[in-house]
Structures are given as structure tokens and as C-alpha cells.
Amino acid sequence: MKRLTSICALAATAALAGCATPYQAASFSGGYTGKKIDDQTYHVTFSGNGYTSKDKVHKYFMYRCAELTQQEGFKYFMIIPAALTGSLPPNNDLVRGAGFDHNMMRKMRTTAPVIIYGGGGGGGVKWNNYGDIRMFNDDAVISTKIIGWDASEIVDELGGFVHSGGQTPGKIPSAWVFEPGHPKVRAQDLLPTAPTAPKKPASAS
Question: Between these two residues, 58 and 3, which has the higher pLDDT value?
């Protein structure tokens, strides 16, 4: 009986994994879309079905942003508030369509302009990412400090994860900080750290 239960559990797990949204252009089961705003700006989305985890949807979204950046001939991208580009109306009604719960809308802390929201139906919570991205190269005119990602790093780090359907581990690389007149630095290098306690002098024996 125990063995039968284990077999059933494994079969159920495999079935659920097979139902998750793959990395693909949008279809009835979810996927990515891209709307061109101008030569450097796109509105990108990735929608998962009820069997696709929040982590997977977010990584697929970031991978699509990086892939699109490279396809358009750029090296970096940043995620900007939708209201700045006019691709979406600047109001709070960002979640539309049947089957979504407005109370479950969440904003990612790590990439503030990226909205993640969930809703019931279709096998569970449906996670979605969308955001406007601005693509640029090393010769970009930058007037203030901004945070962006190197598209090639994301493609390299997440390629195995994306093309294996999440079976191969993958981690989103750290963002870069771009500042006028300065070389880019890792965003994590600008985070404050605890002060180092001074060493106590060795006691005389």
C-alpha cells in the first residue's frame, strides 16, 4: 500500500510539472508578450498558469527581457515605471481580466517596477510579471543614477533553467548601478554593511 501511495504521489508530481507554463510566446497556457513602445523601450509580460511557481514566472520574465534586449542589439536593460512611458495608464487598476483577485497583487521588492499578482482558478494561483524595459549600451547618455542588468549575464545564468523547464538550477545575477561619469558597479556593493568592530589589544601576560 505504501509503495502504491508513493507511485501515485510521484505520478501526480510529474503530471503537475508537465502542466506548468513553458518558456514560450503567449498562448492559452500562458507565456511572454512584448509590445514595442519605441526603438529602446518595450512593454514585456510573462504569464504563468496555475501550476507555474512565482519564482519560475519571475525568472522567465527576466530571461525574456534579456533575450529581447540582445535581439534588439542592446547590451543592458533597466525596468522603468509604466507611467513614465505611457504604455499603461498611471492608475492602481493594473490587474484586469476574469479570475484574478485584486487583493493578491504584490510588488517585487528587488525590482520595484515589476508587478507580480496572483489569482484563483486554473489549478491554483496564477503568477504574472510585467514591466516596461529601457534598453541601452555603454555609450548611453545617463543623467542620473540607474539600476540595470547585463542581458548576456542573465541569458548565461538562466539559460539552463529556462530551457530545462526549471529542472536545472538558475539564479538571476545581481544588477548593476550606472552613474554619470563613473564605471558601473554591482548594486550589492553599494549596500550598507555593519561596521567592523575594532580588535581588542592583546593583554599583557
Answer: 58
